[in-house]
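Researcher: We plan to redesign the surface later, but first we want a full-length starting point. Tokens attached.
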């Protein structure tokens, strides 16, 4: 049996909190495999039918193998070495989404997923089915507008969190959420200049160590890392949508030293700024 598949590339990246890269579905041939490979973004598969296996490394670089069946899914994180393959007798059919964004680490943490827990199991069969249906809808409607698809990506993310058997229970977070949003808003207005954790904590009228603690718990990364992601996301949007020089874009995004910018960008996206722009810049008609 030959592979049958469909995949699409998302045409618009002007979304910072949650963005879509590629998506599709595949009916795999027996023992069809993919990898070993390392991804630059988050990749989630939901098994529609059949069976297969995932082999992935944890945060310590130790490899683990997981067997999956219909109604389950698996997550691959950026930088994680992975290989997955279809069962010989009952090869799987799955749908998949590749996504990223400033708040994805927070959402994935809420779902209780990560390098040490890549296996998704739904609380109920109906919830798992609904999650798979949302993913299939995205895969089958690539001609819809970017906003339409991002809306369904948000529904997918909410469904993943609400249906995950490993999800974290959050309590009493309204005041904490207010502080975090204040800090994020301040970063979005001031990312082009030097910012310190002390200044961000002061904006929220909080102690530095307590601010850092609740920010990491809420967002899944320290405030310094979130600021880097924000700056690089802004830079990627400018490189894609404008003809400005890379050095000028780097300076606009808080990197007066272009070498430091290039190193940070390559670490995040796997390509140099120049290479990334060559692949992603929007070609404007004359």
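Model: Full-length starting sequence:
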């Amino acid at each position: 049996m030959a592979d049958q598949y469909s995949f699409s590339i998302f045409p618009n990246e002007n979304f910072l909190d949650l963005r879509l890269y590629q998506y599709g579905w595949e009916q795999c041939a027996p023992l069809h495999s993919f990898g070993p490979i390392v991804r630059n973004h988050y990749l989630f598969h939901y098994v529609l039918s059949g069976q297969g296996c995932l082999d992935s490394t944890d945060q310590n670089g130790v490899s683990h193998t997981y067997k999956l069946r219909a109604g389950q899914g698996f997550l691959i994180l950026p930088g994680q070495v992975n290989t997955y393959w279809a069962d010989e007798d009952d090869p799987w059919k799955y749908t998949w989404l590749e996504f990223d964004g400033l708040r994805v680490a927070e959402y994935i943490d809420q779902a209780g997923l990560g390098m040490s827990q890549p296996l998704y199991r739904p609380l109920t069969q109906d919830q798992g089915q609904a999650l798979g249906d949302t993913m299939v809808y995205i895969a089958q409607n690539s001609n819809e507008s970017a906003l339409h698809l991002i809306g369904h990506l948000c529904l997918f993310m909410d469904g993943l969190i609400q249906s995950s058997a490993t999800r974290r229970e959050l309590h009493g977070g309204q005041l904490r959420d207010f502080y975090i949003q204040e800090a994020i808003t301040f970063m979005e207005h001031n990312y082009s200049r030097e910012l310190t954790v002390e200044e961000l904590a002061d904006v929220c009228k909080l102690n530095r160590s307590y601010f850092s603690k609740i920010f990491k718990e809420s967002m899944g990364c320290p405030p310094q890392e979130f600021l880097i992601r924000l700056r690089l996301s802004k830079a990627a949007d400018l490189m894609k949508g404008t003809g400005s020089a890379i050095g000028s874009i780097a300076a606009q995004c808080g990197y007066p030293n272009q070498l430091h910018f290039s190193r940070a960008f390559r670490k995040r996206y796997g390509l140099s700024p120049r290479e990334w722009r060559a692949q992603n810049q929007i070609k404007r008609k004359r």
